[in-house]
Amino acid sequence: MLSVEDVARLLSAPNPETAAGLRDRALLEFLYSTGARVSEAVGLDIDDLATIDAEGFVRLLGKGNKERLVPVGTYARKALEIYLVRVRPEFITKGTGTPAVFLNSRGRRLSRQSAWTILRNAAERAQLTEVAEISPHMLRHSFATHLLSGGADVRVVQELLGHASVTTTQLYTHITVDSLREVYMSSHPRAISG
Prior knowledge:
The structure is a single chain. This protein is mainly alpha-helical. The chain is built from ten helices and two strands, in the order ααααββαααααα. It has helices spanning 4-11, 19-34, 38-42, 50-55, 74-92, 112-125, 136-149, 154-161, 166-173, 177-187; strands spanning 57-61, 67-71. Strands 1-2 form a two-stranded antiparallel ribbon. Helix 2 packs across helix 5 (74-92), helix 2 crosses helix 7 (136-149) and helix 8 crosses helix 9 (166-173). It starts with a helix and ends in a 7-residue tail after the last helix. The model has no long low-confidence stretch (mean pLDDT 86).
């Protein structure tokens, strides 16, 4: 798992002076903001973004073709807006007119492997020590853990991740004993003697 500080360094690593850098930042911000699987992000079509403008949510198609609505944070929305306005039109002219949100420089849908490469390159630029271990799943794991550490209910995180079972979410997030103790001590009426 990445710390909040490591994630911030990772997300600011792509070069905002290049088209690819703006795309990369939008992709990374989107992955962390939504907790999307990499396949969900690269499978995203322009029509799936229609709800972001009105409500701040995006429709994701997960495992087993299960659809869920997930909020998109302001940093990710801003990065997406910049990418969609300044970069995607340039990339789309080189391709066949795919409806994909995230495109490669040839105007085709970004592949899962390319998304991995983008993440690894950003980790290297951010000088994160565990570059070899960084994966889109680690970013998803960090999303969930940071929400839980911030006080989010495990069932809400379960819904955001698209897990069928809360057990999967609990195993996936690794809540620390210290944070459990802290929540217990501050929440249970008889945890501390008066």
